[in-house]
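Collaborator request, handled under Task 6.
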Amino acid sequence: MVGPGPDPARLLDELRRLEGLWSRFRDDSEVARLGRGAGAWTLTSPETAGLVARSVLAWERTGGLFDPTVAGTLEQLGYDRDLTELRGGGRLRAVVPPTPRGVEADESARLVRLPAGVRIDPGGIGKGLAADLVVAAALAGADPSVGVLVSVGGDLRVGGRPPHGGWEVELDHGAGTLQRVNLSAGAVATSSVLRRRWDTVDGPAHHVVDPRTGLPSTGPAVSVTAVAGEAWWAEAVATALLVGIGGELPARLLTEIDAGRVGAAATLADGTRIRLGTVGDAIVDEPGTLVGVPDHEDPTDDPVGAQDRGVA
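Structure tokens returned to the collaborator:
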């Protein structure tokens, strides 16, 4: 934090509250309650309605490579409890997720409807949105000199006035050398198949599901970092590219990259590093290098983080 910002304990309390709303491992969470709605409209908090709306938007914009309806698939693969409690031993059985087609979210009315049999796994997009919301809460009414960086499980959002030279963020892809990116605004998220792994009878499994197969992704990329205006969108892009690199990427996502509204760097299984877009070029290997990412409009039309559009 830079400047006379809010008490960090208050921001941690807000993160705990959001976790309570969105954890798929808690029967009393709003996400769990939505999954039991059997096609009926369900009244939720504004944060949960916003999460579902953004999850559907991310699915649309990534051509389905990011799919928030993988909760049942992950359970069938063995990820049915907190990772620290997993014992493994099951089989890898493909369960193609139902997709969020038919999911409805009315943010103004705080109402959400999931088709019967559809459940949402907030996963990474929930971590990203939590970082966005906590940054917005930290800056609400704050002195203009305040700058904030919030990281939730590696999904990172910065806002307000950055330190001199920007926020230097160190990126660990789990393979090869560390990378770095300098941010004065915006968000960074990394998705990797090298973490959140468990053993099965059929071999190791991980939590990044290819929604086209219903199995853990087997593409050439093992880790992807994305930079975007907001952390929920950076997380969705990172996951979509992790699944999609090696095949034909959706035109809409490529447009976002070509326009400089999002960028990424990927590490492949053979150690090769690739960068996508001018924003991705800001992710560098050289220790201590600070690179500015050009200002641009946020790729979304939603109000989350409206005080801090784009990355710079």
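The cover message to the collaborator said: "DSSP finds eight helices and 15 strands in the chain. Confidence is low (pLDDT under 50) at residues 288-312. Please let us know whether this matches your experimental observations."
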